[in-house]
Amino acid sequence: MARITKTEDGRFRAFIARQGKRKSKVFRSKRDATDWAARQEYLILNDEIVQSNVYFGDMLDRYAREVSIAKRGARWEMIRIEKLRRYPIANISMGNLIAQDFAKWRDERLKEVAPASVNREMGLMGSALNHARKEWGMIKVNPMADVAKPRKPPPRDRRPTTDEIERMAFVAGSDLSTKTARAFHGFLFAIETGMRAGEIVKLTPEYADIAHGYLFGVRDHNMLMQS
Fold it and tell me: Nearest CA to 136 among 77, 52, 36?
């Protein structure tokens, strides 16, 4: 039940306690306090209905702001979510989403990008839907659970030939002030070290021993600094 009390400075505090949830807020007028309390009680009693009416795109936006931002790949997820919100599926409420909506989105998306990209985007949407189900109570079942992902392309099983590398070197040139040259030399570095792009771009001088020709891993570097 809602309770409205007057504070010492003449304002009004609304307090509600419903289904184990407690909320309170101070207002200048008793009318505002009463209206707020009534609204909050409605939201608590009809939480499942209210949550299910949230648009899928708005849920993704909330996921980006509250969950993605804390991840290592935050920038990629937030950019991807912004793009996903432009598709018609983003305008369907959470309570009305069905597997066929995602199957239709998948088939249309495959006309634009490779299966690997669609798989990554479906993985992102699936994670957001699971979070919405477990943490926010917006849905009881993940509608993507039974949607098949595109078949992965066969893995690449060859290295670039000497002729291909020479051709790339000719086009890139040796001027490292250009992006093309830097990208090519980064490519050569990856071939020689087996490092991934993310690992290469995070390299800083303290992780390199130029004199002896080897690199420290982050863990090895930290242990060395502590010794």
Answer: 52
